[in-house]
Design a protein that fits this description.
Layout (H helix, E strand, L loop, with lengths): L7 H7 L1 H14 L6 H14 L3 E5 L2 H11 L7 E5 L5 H8 L3 E5 L21 E4 L11 H11 L2 E5 L7 E2 L2 E2 L6 E5 L13 E5 L2 H11 L21 H11 L2 H19 L14 E2 L5 E4 L3 H10 L29 H6 L3 E4 L7 H11 L5
Parallel strand pairs: 2-3, 2-4, 4-5, 5-8
Antiparallel strand pairs: 1-9, 6-7, 6-10, 8-9, 11-12
Helix pairs in contact: 2-8, 3-8, 4-5, 4-7
Bound molecules: pyridoxal-5'-phosphate (PLP).
The site of pyridoxal-5'-phosphate (PLP) has 15 residues, from helix 4 and helix 5.
Length: 368
């Protein structure tokens, strides 16, 4: 038995007829771009989060970039981002012509260290992009205080955290705008690329809609500005509308699996397991553990064909495109530390008890 890191086939099979009907309806309507499937999904996703506006776009990276452009952030500006995240967070900043400024993470939560943000703020700083990495909310209260003190925008990167909560409030509702990704393996995933921007600011909502649709708003051939083409297509939107109904159930199942892992793997003092602070509701996009001899653990997993991943093998300040910044390892102690021993083990709603026991039995063989 191969245990994958995520099993999209199993998920599809669990809701196959609903998905097939939704896709078929879209094809029969031949309204492939925009149209009612997109409007309906945008409305239900905004409602799910309790937000005013949701604008679908091509992917999560575009979502970040379009938000930055809408806020007129570009050349000469700086944006604070965590050192440990998927490349998109910094890539979007670079692509609008601004400079990403990296801040180290807190090692036990893997999210940006709010205490280290202030020292990186300059006259050029315009925004902070906290990332709710692995599905775990960043310290939004602490970040908000800093953002207010310096008049900075907060843009949340929610690509891994659909449905996660901070003090009983969903992530994606704290900043001026938030970016979501519907990449197939995300907690809410399409059958291709997709993304969305959510905001409570009506003007910003209009502005991101214009940028993502060639500068047009509701009327074709009326171009308010030079935008781009980054839209959520109708088939993806109709799939997402079906899946959104299951998101909470799926996230709960991920949490149950996490509890199972935490109780069984908790026996092993050699493992550092994810933390669960009272104020934060984790949605376990990934289940990341740390152990000193990762290679040994990988051997054990491979022996039983259990898939694993490393998210991520490098901290962004040290990847080739950012070498020009000449950062030192000690400036990002925690990020540089954790990348050496983190490993992601399978977590997805369709994991069976049999699979879970097999994974745990195997992991418990680990000895340093
Ligand atoms: C997946 C992801 C993105 C980008 O999403 P795409 O849809 O793949 O462009 C951005 N940020 C983080 C943290 C992600 O995990």
């Amino acid at each position: 038995m191969i245990i994958p890191l995520v099993d999209l086939g199993a998920q599809y099979n669990s809701i196959k007829s609903e998905i097939d009907d939704a896709i078929k309806e879209c094809i029969e309507e031949t309204n492939f771009i925009k149209g009612k499937a997109v409007t309906a999904f945008e409305r239900s996703f905004a409602d799910y989060l309790g937000m005013e506006c949701c604008v679908g776009c091509g992917n999560g990276t575009d979502a970040l970039e379009i938000i930055l452009s809408s806020l007129n952030i570009g050349t000469g500006d700086e944006v604070i981002v965590p050192a440990l995240t998927w490349i998109s967070t910094a890539e979007a900043v670079t692509n609008v012509g601004a400079e990403p400024v990296f801040v180290d993470i807190v090692s036990h939560t893997y999210t940006i260290d709010a205490k280290k943000i202030e020292e990186k703020i300059t006259k050029k700083t315009k925004a902070i992009i906290p990332v709710h990495l692995y599905g775990y909310p960043a310290d939004m209260n602490e970040i908000k205080i800093i953002a207010e003190k310096y008049g900075l925008f907060i843009i949340e990167d929610c690509a891994q955290a659909h449905g996660a909560e901070y003090f009983d409030r969903k992530v994606g509702t704290f900043g001026i705008a938030s970016a979501f990704s519907f990449f197939p393996s995300k907690n809410l995933g399409a059958f291709g690329d997709g993304g969305a921007i959510v905001t409570n600011n009506k003007d910003l909502g209009d502005s991101v809609r214009k940028i993502s649709n060639h500068g047009q708003l509701n009327e074709k051939h009326k171009h308010f500005l030079i935008g781009r083409n980054s839209r959520l297509d109708s088939i993806q939107a109709s799939i997402l509308s079906v899946k959104l109904k299951y998101l909470d159930t799926w996230n709960n199942r991920r949490r149950d699996i996490a509890s199972f892992y935490l109780s069984r793997l908790g026996e092993k003092a050699e493992f550092v397991l994810p933390v669960q602070e009272q104020s934060k509701k984790h949605v376990y996009h990934l289940f990341v553990i740390r152990c000193r001899q990762r290679e040994k653990l990988i051997e054990l997993l491979e022996e039983k064909k259990i898939s694993w991943g490393i998210h991520y093998p490098n901290a962004l300040p040290f990847i080739t495109p950012y070498r020009y910044k000449k950062h030192k390892l000690q400036d990002f102690n925690n990020s540089s530390d954790v990348i050496k021993d983190i490993i992601s083990i399978p977590i997805y709603p369709e994991l069976t008890e049999l699979q879970l026991n097999l994974i745990c039995d195997q992991l418990l063989k680990y000895n340093e």
